[in-house]
Inverse folding.
């Protein structure tokens, strides 16, 4: 038997997981998807593809090659070297010789004190862009030849002022498998995708900075990246700005046309998510504590309950533990199917949540006075 207090706690956790599971199931069938478009539209609007790059020698060549070989009829590619200290500038100069009429290389200016690096780089790129649409994409992405035409077609179909999309994540190390797909769970299970594009309420906002396609007039209307110049989660905050201006934001699945190698190994995963996890929770301690407790009770605690119940022989507690564990795995399964990830990720859910708690704690510590968030040689 279990106490009445524990009984009601279990019911509360179960109810919350059932709600998240229902949202996950709904999104599994309704999440916007960028369909691969194979025909060329000769009347397509001019697109400026904008790539901020800082110490990206690992993947910049493959990224720019993919962008310079689009079937799209009218576009330009601008890359900003944001003070790289590796071989990125040399690679960019080689690429410039390969694509002299299509590719423009910009040398970034020094970072002002009140700016975050990526937003400043994107702002500089936007100042040189000529397109009716602005496609910001990270230097670790690889685009299929039909990427731009597919993104533009989807954006126009939904009449989006900002189309932001989730690429296929290329995962190598255990830590990448553990953490990166857990981020998918958050916007797949915690927010109905249709509310992002059907409501102007900025609370229903989600975005992925790896792919951000703006209508130029909507971008200018919110003062572009200048409006989020000090944000460590500039993608989410700029999506909120767009919605606050009564413009439409669409978050889509783009795994068929774009892939991304986001982080490589434990250090990059840990530092990369630590720099912005707390900011993603609005830097509010009550929200931070809520998610820490939620992650632990919803995903980490259930298998612990199962182990304890097995040892103690408490079958009622075992049933609760199994139910909660299965619900957590179902939530992970839904996003795994949505983004075509390996099915073994379902069994990583408790460890993923535990790792997220550790990262969240470190992110909070970095936010304290006399500390700082560190990324690519900069401290914010």
């Amino acid at each position: 038997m279990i106490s009445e207090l524990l009984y009601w706690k279990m019911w509360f956790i179960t109810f919350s997981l059932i709600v998240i599971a229902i949202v996950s199931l709904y999104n599994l069938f309704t999440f916007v998807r960028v369909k691969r478009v194979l025909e060329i539209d000769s009347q397509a609007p001019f697109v400026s593809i904008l790539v901020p790059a800082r110490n990206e020698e690992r993947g910049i060549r493959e990224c720019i090659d993919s962008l310079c070989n689009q079937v799209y009829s009218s576009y330009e590619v601008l890359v900003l070297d944001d003070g790289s200290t590796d071989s990125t500038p040399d690679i960019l100069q080689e690429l410039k010789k390969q694509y002299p009429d299509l590719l423009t290389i910009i040398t970034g200016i020094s970072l002002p004190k009140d700016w975050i690096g990526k937003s400043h780089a994107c702002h500089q790129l936007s100042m040189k862009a000529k397109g009716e649409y602005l496609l910001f994409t990270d230097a670790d992405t690889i685009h299929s030849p039909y990427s731009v035409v597919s993104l533009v077609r989807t954006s126009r179909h939904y009449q989006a002022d900002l189309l932001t999309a989730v690429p296929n994540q290329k995962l190598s190390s255990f830590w990448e498998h553990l953490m990166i797909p857990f981020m998918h769970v958050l916007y797949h299970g915690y927010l109905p995708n249709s509310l992002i594009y059907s409501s102007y309420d900025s609370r229903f906002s989600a975005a992925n900075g790896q792919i951000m396609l703006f209508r130029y007039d909507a971008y200018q209307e919110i003062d572009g990246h200048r409006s989020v110049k000090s944000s460590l989660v500039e993608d989410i905050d700029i999506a909120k700005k767009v919605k606050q201006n009564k413009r439409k934001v669409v978050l889509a699945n783009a795994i068929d046309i774009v892939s991304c190698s986001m982080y490589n190994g434990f250090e990059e995963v840990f530092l990369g998510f630590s720099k912005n996890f707390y900011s993603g929770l609005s830097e509010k301690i009550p929200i931070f504590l809520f998610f820490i407790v939620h992650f632990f009770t919803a995903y980490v605690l259930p298998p612990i309950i199962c182990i304890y119940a097995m040892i103690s022989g408490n079958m009622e507690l075992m049933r609760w533990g199994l139910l909660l564990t299965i619900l957590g795995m179902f939530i992970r399964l839904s996003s795994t199917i949505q983004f075509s990830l390996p099915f073994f990720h379902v069994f990583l859910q408790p460890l993923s949540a535990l790792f997220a708690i550790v990262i969240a704690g470190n992110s909070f510590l970095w936010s304290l006075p006399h500390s700082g968030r560190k990324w690519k040689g900069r401290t914010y």
The mean pLDDT is 93.
